Amino acid sequence: MPxxxxxxxxxxxxxxxxxxxxxxxxxxxxxxxxxxxxxxxHVPYGPRPLAQVRxxxxxxxxxxxxxxxxxxxxxxxxxxxxxxxxxxxxxxxxPVFEVIGPGSAAACAATRSGAIGVIATQGTxxxxxYGRALRACGATQVRExxxxxxxPLVERGVSDGPEVEAAVTAYLTPLRDAGMDTLVFGCTHYxxxxxxxxxxxxxxxxxxxxxxxxxxxxxxxxxxxxxxxDPARHRFFSSGDPESLRREGERFLGLPLxxxxxxxxxxxxxxxx
Length: 273
Ligand code: DGL
What we know:
Rossmann fold, binds D-glutamic acid, 45% helix, alpha/beta
């Protein structure tokens, strides 16, 4: 186990989605210091080329290690689908966690029928990363659905109501009709919409949020620890409007976010670890 009394854990995403991962990590490792970067200047990542997202992600990971992170958790499925985890693991000496592997393993453990649905960004769906990971752990049927309207809704702070319900119905009807018994949130923004999605699918479909399972991996590496959380030790960066990250972060994490700093991505002079 690394010698980190209060480990600093870097988490990043295109926007607020990675907060779902940050919250899961803090629930498992409450003494962690969080350093979070939202690449809001480039949200949504979904329609962008995978190579561009990979480049952003690798630079952001370097930045987070430069900020003293003992490990980085990629709070963004698309960056792992784009291969950033492979590049970063080869380039950096400190651990880098990603969400597709643990999310897929959890879905395979949960399914009874072997039929698993995935909702994700266009880029993640087109990469085929979830299909490969799920089939490798035993899924017999995988159905992936891109949900491009979800990220803009979540970034606007809209997580329920008629607009969300219309989008949920449009995207999830084919998956529900295909009869899968397990659904993976293949984008970290989507757990913000968990309530309307759960309402639509009903209790027979198991919802898998990969954040919970990557957070267990982080706990295995660092140990939970018992120190009480001190919000002042977390740091937040945004490449866009710091105010929107502050607002959503405070609401979702239930913590005051006194420090949200503007930073440009691609990050100049990112320090490599
Ligand atoms: N939340 C990110 C993911 O998990 C990206 C969402 C986006 O910006 O399109 O893939």
